[in-house]
Amino acid sequence: MSQSKPLTLHVPEPTGRPGCQTDFSYLRLAAAGSARKPPVDVAAADTFDLASTLIRVLDDAGHAVGPWAPDLDSELLRFGLRSMMKTRTFDARMVIAQRQKKMSFYMSSLGEEAIGTAHALALQDGDMNFPTYRQQSLLMAKNFSLVEMICQLLSNERDPLKGRQLPVMYSVREAGFFTISGNLATQFVQAVGWAMASAIKGDTKIASGWIGDGATAESDFNTALTFAHVYRAPVILNVVNNQWAISTFQALAGGESVTFAARGVGSGIASLRVDGNDFLAVYAASRWAAERARANLGPTLIEWVTYRAGPHSTSDDPSKYRPADDWSHFPLGDPVERLRQHLTGLGLWSDEQHAATQQELEAEIVAAQKQAEQFGTLAHGRAPGAASMFEDVYKDMPEHLRRQRQQSGV
Amino acid sequence: MTMIQALRSAMDVMLERDPDVVIYGQDVGYFGGVFRCTDGLQAKYGKSRVFDAPISEGGIVGTAVGMAAYGLRPVVEIQFADYFYPASDQIVSEAARLRYRSAGQFTAAMTIRMPCGGGIYGGQTHSQSPEAMFTHVCGLRTVMPSNPYDAKGLLIACIENDDPVIFLEPKRLYNGPFDGHHDMPVVPWSKHPLGEVPEGYYTVPLDSAKVVREGAALTVIAYGTMVYVAEAAARETGIDAEIIDLRSIWPLDLNTIVNSVKKTGRCVVVHEATRTSGFGAELCALVQEHCFYQLEAPIERVTGWDTPYPHAQEWAYFPGPERVGAAFKRAMGGA
Question: What distance in Å separates residue A277's CA from the closest CA in chain B?
Fold first, then answer.
């Protein structure tokens, strides 16, 4: 080719912008039950097909089909559904509380409830999650105290983090929930280090790292994959592909014509691409990866395909960059409704039970909120004392901080 | 011992004493480090305690944060301080703030060793002194030894400390003291009293400076290689300088500084790092704040110039005894 035409810069765009409809054909879907389930000692290179397809258990009629259908007892299934509903109800309540100026900020996880909920059930006590700010469902599945969570959101005098952190940046060591950082992707490589530590000490605990589609573009994503592969760390590397990083479509993070799961295979890590709105598939894949890690067979990367149904945060208005009715067109639907349909089909759940559970959860969350608000809110004061601002910077307070505390007059 | 041997001995002692200590970094394992600081440690303690790492500073520090959160006590190496920048996010946003943001649920008891400083024809990326990048970060400790005895005692203290520590090692001092007279043969540590290093466990306390030369005329605040340059300048000018080796750069030993300046009434701050917003600015501000009524002359700063570290112009850049001596004279009221 001798002819040189002017070069052009390619800038990926989503098909759907406000006022038009998204073409979801880019999603590389597959029928429920169609993906094979390899043994846990599968070689990373032999997972390329699983990193390119979509592992799904629940079909459109709500039946569990194929080799990944897990053997979950009915109690656990109902608990899973309840935890998802609890996450969603909690989110909705907290968004209202933010609008009422009781808290400064909130981030909901609408549409992504299955991922953390089912994943948490596949882990064991003592394992450590390194979550982002959108894995509150991990705490819900651990039955963690709603009052403590709301106190953190309110930055009140009972806030376990003493008012130092933005709302949602929880830290719950006892529930295997690592301290959330505002800096994206940093925890992904820390999860690998934690897993390496467990291996160094000959422990049996595993780590689970979390990252969104957008943050995979951060260097720590690549770093985590390299270290996990090099040291065969007992870690699950979760990429939650909800299609959006604030206003930025996943193609701009590098998702055009390629899956995020494929990055894992390229790094020598066994990788799966899973329907993130399919509670059963999430549980089964998480269980598989956890087994692999615990058997010292190395890391697993899982891309969870889902959709960020809500605004990025309470500071965001998605109608400015994507269609308002986008979620209703997302082919993988709503994780709560899909599990509900499945359980109803099995005779394990009914509309009455659903309505009753919903009511129960509303009451539980309202009560927790009331209790938490007794310890103060952003609007009505009773924040942690200013003197505590100087604590925990170092283990022991150095001279200069003691002087500054004195100067501050608190 | 040389400083290299002293540092290796510190790590040896701590690997032996504490099963939670692990050491890793680029070329740190089998090969024993490009400066030999970890020579023989992998053979002695095994690959799960001392191991090689990929070339990824962010990965090295990031995994160390995770290990520390688990409960280990990682001692990681960045091959040159000039290459810490890719790990900035993990150092500043994570290691330094883990304890604070989790209200003590998670901590980062870790030590990051970095060979630093110039005077070795290292050019732009093998000579930097980035201590001010760390002293500005709340939650970090920044430490720099100037001799083998302190190097071992301080490193052990840092490894045992529950805060994240940046441990800067002036590579110019690895094999012997250096006073800036590059045209003279270097005396090895074996001929220096501070090359006498105990084999076993001992510590040099953090937040504690050392007066390396008592004097009445003026106070010099220095650390690392500049301690020896200041000593040479005192010798050559005949000015009775009191020289303080900070050792712990931040948090620092304010009392020793203040007591000295109150006594002498004059102060010269010396560092290799570039001047503007360098750590010397903080030292000047502290002295001004705490010793204003005792000061008899403006505080002098002798530092690297505000340029990247050059190669051919090494000795015009490096603040040698002549430049330091000139500042002594200015502080004393001379021209």
Answer: 30
